[in-house]
Amino acid sequence: MRFEPEVLAADPDRRIEVVAWLEAALAAVDPERLTRAALSQSPRGPVATIAIGKAASAMTRGAASAAEIVMGLCISDHAEDVPDEVTTLIGDHPIPGPASFEAGNAAIDFVRSVPSDVPILGLISGGGSAVCEYPRPGVSTSLLTEVATRLVRSGATIEEINLARGHLSSTKRGGLAARSGRVIETLVISDVAGADPSVVASGPTSPTAPDPSAARAVLARHGIEVTTAMWEAMTTNVEAPPSHITLLADGFDAAQAVAVAASDPVEIRSEWLESEVVECVDDLLSHAGPGVTVCVGEPVLEVDGPGKGGRNTHAALTIAPKLAGSTAIFVAFATDGVDGRSGSAGAIVDGATVKRGGDPRPALTRFDSAEYLARSGDLLRCRPTGTNVSDLWILWKPV
Fold it and tell me: How would DSSP label each residue in 333-387?
């Protein structure tokens, strides 16, 4: 079991079952297996691989088991084993920093250096926007960091964030494809609504029509002034070859695995979680009936406090008092194993959480949900999962 056992102390039998659902969800979206299966369908010769995102290492291993990698670059937020022919770089996450800019520059150099007779295989997954970054001419690295920081803290959606910074970046919106001068066959593990490959990791190998006016509107909406230099960078069109992209999995594949594993009837809600956390919690409670309700997405959380937490722990602590005295269980789980500043993957709460932990309102006000949930024994801890298909929320009201 990849999850630490402390969260099983309360109501262990039912929590063991819920954790088994999460294990099934992660197995369904295992990047190594999915990449190997996709590439095994048609024989191919030697390839160069450029892997970017939280599933980069696993996707690289999957590619290596189905094709001959003669040179490769793997950029992620953590290190795992990869073949000797592949160089690993660790970028900063969730805000791009010096390591991210080093990785982005290396990615540009890499795609330019691949011999013309060696195909390039892109392996792209969520989390890649932060770990692999390099500014367009006229844009500073400090500006990219500031834009990302302000958008993340303001509660902007991932689509808004990637649209805005994609117009300031040399590695995004097909930037790597443009600098390679060729079509890059790309496999994608998605963490975004609609599994849009231009949004996953900001689409480094997925050429996307520019929309600088929309990007400027996002920045203005979140209080960021667009200077003349920024606008010139945003309106510079970069020509790139067309893309060849295959989607391997997204959050709804993980949700379907929960449906197969669960003992009670399951409803998978088709609406993507993208509103503010409290609004998403209220919407779930108003629509969920008996049985298991599963939601997929990345709700937004505008942080205004010094505490430790993430959108999933905040959601769990928000819903906990609403479950008081009931037999229901709620799980909020970041499938990459990292939920904001919480030091956890999320939480499992039940009808006795508030009894164990006390009044949750001070912790919510301080955005300190992780401290509270650690005290109540509800924090869900695990090592990085090596994948990323957004968040899973599960509400179980036993039939």
Answer: EETTS--TTSSSSEEEEETTHHHHH---HHHHHTT-HHHHHHHHT-EE-B---S-
Q: Are 378 and 10 in contact (CB under 8 A)?
A: yes
> What is the per-residue DSSP string for 49-84?
EEEESTTHHHHHHHHHTTS-EEEEEEEESS-----T
Peptide bond into 94 cis (omega under 30): yes
Band of the pLDDT at 1, cuts 50, 70, 90? Answer: low
DSSP state of 309: -
CA atoms within 13 A on the CB side of 51: 38
The yes-or-no verdict on residue 304 having pLDDT over 90 is no
Beta-bridge mates of residue 48: 71, 120
Can you read off the two tokens belonging to residue 71?
């040179």
Can you give the pLDDT at residue 140? 96
pTM given for the model: 0.94
Residue-wise DSSP of 150-198: HHHHTT--HHHHHHHHHTTBSSTTTHHHHHHTS--EEEEE--SGGG-TT
Counts of helices then strands in the chain (DSSP H, E): 16, 12
Nearest to 95 by CA among 289, 384, 341: 341
User: Would strands 346-350 and 329-334 be described as parallel, antiparallel, or unpaired?
Assistant: antiparallel
The CA angle 264-300-148, to the nearest 5 degrees, is: 140
Task: Name which of 156, 141, 275 is nearest 220 in CA terms.
Answer: 156
Please choose, from the candidates 310, 290, 288, 293, the residue with its C-alpha nearest in 3D space to the C-alpha of residue 301. Answer: 310
SS3 per residue for 194-250: HHCCCCHHHCCCCCCCCCHHHHHHHHHHCCCCCCHHHHHHHCCCCCCCCCEEEEEEC
pLDDT at 302 over 80: yes
Domains of the chain, earliest start first: 5-27+251-397 (3.40.1480.10), 30-249 (3.40.50.10180)
Q: Residue 344's closest CA among 317, 306, 304, 305? A: 317
Token code pair at residue 375? 């005290």
